[in-house]
Amino acid sequence: MMHAVIEIGTHVFFAALGFAALFAVSAVAVGLRGMRRGH
Questions:
Q1: DSSP assignment of the chain, as one string?
Q2: What global pTM score does this model have?
Q3: Distance from CA of residue 17 to its chain's centroid?
């Protein structure tokens, strides 16, 4: 029982980590693109 909870927790943690990484990369890309286009 406890093992399943830990396993689900790690999956959720890595999924959140992946989404955060994608969000950060896209935000940086949009920021660099905006800076180049604006100035």
A1: -HHHHHHHHHHHHHHHHHHHHHHHHHHHHHHHHHHHHH-
A2: 0.62
A3: 5
